[in-house]
């Protein structure tokens, strides 16, 4: 990596930087003209300079130049305008200059933003690329949360700074110099006053902001440490609960937050002190202009138009100057951040990029022997785990490496799987060093199954087939709009130094698994699932899953047909009373009241008994059918029986495990609610109280709870 951020930016964006600098230089011409035009408007048509006679006119837009070797060249004779016409013409030119300056700013800022985002994309990809090439031992020295925070948050300002790295000092410095030069041209002493204030701001403010940079660096480091500490808490939450150290962790986090608060408070104080001094210096200059410039105007040494033009020009001077000072602070701040990123990611030795090159061709089987020569492995502390071991493992041999914990057996296996690198010695296959072999060979022909497994966020199928996703095997089919969008994204990826690999391609190497495509991949991997004894687990997982009938259209019909076949089989075997199916024309006595109302089970956690009782649609339905009072009465009876039977039992009593409509914690709540509703009718209860009572009835099953509350009439 480049050690200097400025060199890194220039190396990757110099052509774009040169173009935008040329645009900035061109924008200075209309910017200067916009300062001079107010003076011409005030002195000319407004005060009448040059329009002394009643019908006097002046030439507008006369364009002629004296060119070397050519002489006088006239491009446009101009127009003769009277006083009013000249006022309107100059005003329209001023408006045109305002629009032109605005368009220049719009283009420059848009181009800067695009350039910055492209550079941010480049540096993030480069950092992640380096993470993929870190030596294995380095991952034991870093925290994943800190690395993720640096890539996600700490490099974010670098993208914004990329567009400003060379453009902002050129644009803002050019604007400030243009405005200052214009003021000096109008009046030397007023120009010297402005230059003096600018000099003080340019020298004093950056020096004061060094303290801000130091505080910002401390804030960044403490925030990153907090992120890593929070990651440790999440990863070790079981250990924390198991050892009753949650309050120790709270104390640690509180201490870190207190440190961050102190740094940020100092940062705010110093920041606003610098801002106060900067604003004060910016406001002193207009006071001097009004006082000294007004005095010169009274003496006749400065005309009104010049004074107005000077004040107007200075109005545009503090803005660029302040932004230039801000740019310098951002430059130093971003350089500090980049330096820290450089120190974290400039790891040696990195895995050679050629080892991880994309390979789409099939890889043949390894036919040579594993030859281990004088292999030495050490742990993090430097203790020898394997000391000068030599062995040859021939093809088709089954070898067991036996030893107690810490004996080096596991480390030796990791070395064969290229999970750790040797301190000395080498491992070869067919005379080729294992560490020099491409991952397209070792990753497809050497498998290492450790006790530490990782399940990537995604589907089960994606994780099962993860070891087959080495390269895009087929191109996706795009319509015309999608093809144009992909072409644009590919072009942007190239400009940002990213690969143009299409994630939407099918990356699964079906042939390597012995399949011809996605249709028969399950058949091909089924023996593997049986061999590692997880076929039944996957089947159980599938049976507990919800089928998306939009994707698996036929599967839903097969499941329904399977239910009918099961029912016929049970009837043929004389076991049809074991399962009571749902029937449109009958109440299912083995299901809850809620399941009978819904004609199925609730999809939790989207719907629960509590939500069902409070749902406006069901409340309206109960009122219209007259079920409200019946379910309310049933709920009251259930509450009275439950409170009477279980109120004096301890919360951990096994009876509560059989109680589906109420928990041990609900008993005191319903005990108080029954006392409140004892002499009140359904109409007198509040909606919340009705819902609390009615929801008890939804979990009631007559054959199970046997309170005698479900009559034939109510079931009908």
TrEMBL record:
GO terms for cellular component: plasma membrane. It comes from the Bacteria. It holds the Pfam family ABC_tran. The keyword Transmembrane helix applies. PROSITE patterns: ABC_TM1F, ABC_TRANSPORTER_2. The keyword Nucleotide-binding applies. InterPro entries: ABC1_TM_dom, ABC1_TM_sf, ABC_transporter-like_ATP-bd, P-loop_NTPase, Type_1_exporter. It is found in: Cell membrane. The chain crosses the membrane at residues 15-33, 87-108, 176-205, 280-298. Residues 370-600 form the ABC transporter domain. Keywords: ATP-binding, Membrane, Nucleotide-binding, Transmembrane, Transmembrane helix. It is a multi-pass membrane protein. One of its GO terms (molecular function) is ATP hydrolysis activity. Residues 75-326 form the ABC transmembrane type-1 domain. SUPFAM superfamilies: ABC transporter transmembrane region, P-loop containing nucleoside triphosphate hydrolases. This is Putative ABC transport system ATP-binding protein.
